Amino acid sequence: MMDASDQEELVGDADQPVAPPNGVINELLNVGQEGNMQGQMEEFLGPQAEYNEEEEERKYYRRKRLGVIKNVLAASVGATIVYSVYMGLLQMQLILHYDMTYREVKYSNLGLEDIDRKMLMGINVTPIIGLLYTPVLIRFLGTKWMMFLASGIYALFVSTNYWERYYTLVPSAVAIGVAIVPLWASLGNYITRMAQQYYEYVNYKEEHVQEQKKLPKGACHNYIIVFQSVFYIIFHLSFVFAEFPMRFVLHDYLHENPHILFNVHSCGANISGVIPGFNTTVLTNLPRSMLLIQVESVLMGFAFLAMIIFLVLCGAAYRPTEEIDLRSIGWGNIFQLPFKHLRDYRLRLLCPFFIYSGFEMLFAVTGFSLSYGVCALGLKKLWLLIVVYGLSCSVFSSLSLCLLRLPRWVCLVGGAAVHAVLLVVLLAFSPPPKSPEYLGPLLVISVLWGLGTALNKTGVSTLLGMLYAEEKERLDFVYTIYHWWQAIAIFIVYLWSNLPMRAKLSILLATLLLACYCYWVMERRLAMKVPFRLPRIPRPRHKVKGYRYLEEDNSDESDSEKSEEDDEEEDEEHERRHRREDHVKEGVREEREGG
């Protein structure tokens, strides 16, 4: 009976409708929502009606071009600050150390005169070995990081002036000498590379740009002219800012002309050395130590600002893959290539201009401003001569923009003509000491010399960029050679300090004439299409594994990792060579049988 009732209950339960599980109900309810979400995802991931790919690409490359302009301005401002701080501090330091009272009261047994001689020797002599290590440093660190490191060395030089001792001043001066050539080679390379990058970002649709091939000849010359002009317009203002410590700190502590120039009997072309008879006490009273510390702290702050500008605002000069390729040709090859580039007759014939470029700027700030300016006008007018010279250089650097319409020789020949006339005038010009009435003529000479300097500096840098615009892997070698010859010229000027003024002017004039002749020969050879000899740069061979990038020619590939296609190409080359040899042998055999 029990079994029957159980069965009846079970049957009864089965007849009643059973409610489906909650999950099934949810699935049935969500079917429509899932279809909706799928449609929204397809709409989101699909092509957008309002998205314009070409417009977005154009905006992207516009941002890239603005980034290049930012890089050029940042490098120019950074270099200006570095040299403003360096030259301003060095000038103030040399004037203070020259004063006999300052030396005896503050550093009686230290021998500041001897320290200054060693310091100037370190700054002027050390760069002559710059050709040996500059390309290796630039390729090891990269162009941007080389500029940053060099600006740090200049900041180190500023910091050593807090504690003036032999073991602080001399080593930091030697470090400055080591950094001069790498800094300037990096700056020249960087500005030219920015011009090349700007061209690539303007013509990003061109096939040779997309495939990262060599640029067409003359394609980026206009950008090189503009960027080099902008750099020198900004950089030459460093001569103006460098005079701020002299004008606003030391000016009120300087003696008047009758005291400083009491034993000076002749100036200009008639003298030997710098200023014979110049008084050894130039300060009326000694500046407070706290004032000097405050000035040095301000200069130190600007030196750090220059480092931050190079670090944060300057972008990379090369792509990461290009940086790898530049380093991977072998350090021995990098060391040798600057010397091998001197086989190029274009560089050899420009060497006299490189040397003159170093001569004329250093002569302007030491020879002319001291032996003519200070000797006739007094030490209180030194800042005015340098400021006028710096402003003239800055303003007239814009004249190099005329190369956008005129031949490239206009800048160099124009600057050389101005300097040749001035050198002849200075050979005959000897103003008497303590002659304030000669302020006008000396300021005119400063302005005109600045005109020549501006045309010379912008002309040489622009010319080098134009000659090697398509050879971006050679730029660091070329600018290293240029600034190394300038360093040699600075060393020669350091050696000739005691020569008669007419001998110095004669050397300048002879170098200028030789430079003009050699430049004419170079342009004539190029017009006649005489081939120049460029050293072959070895193909990069990367030994590391784990970093690969797509390229037609995979420069990461080492000898042991050759692709099958390369092996097949080599086999085909061997077969072609063997067929040529067999053909030659058959021809020789037929000639013998015919004979």
TrEMBL record:
Molecular functions per Gene Ontology: Toll-like receptor binding
Parts of the chain that traverse the membrane: 68-89, 119-138, 145-163, 169-191, 223-242, 298-318, 349-370, 382-404, 411-432, 477-497, 503-522
Compositional bias segments (type: Basic and acidic residues): 581-595
Intracellular or extracellular location(s): Membrane
Membrane topology: Multi-pass membrane protein
Sorted UniProt keywords: Membrane, Transmembrane, Transmembrane helix
Keyword Isomerase appears in the UniProt entry: no
Stored Pfam families: UNC-93
Main location: membrane
Keyword Nucleotide-binding carried by entry: no
Record-level GO BP terms: intracellular protein transport; toll-like receptor 3 signaling pathway; toll-like receptor 7 signaling pathway; toll-like receptor 9 signaling pathway; toll-like receptor signaling pathway
Entry's family note: Belongs to the unc-93 family.
Name this polypeptide is given: Unc-93 homolog B1, TLR signaling regulator
Organism the protein comes from: Zoarces viviparus (Viviparous eelpout)
Lineage start: Eukaryota, Metazoa, Chordata, Craniata, Vertebrata
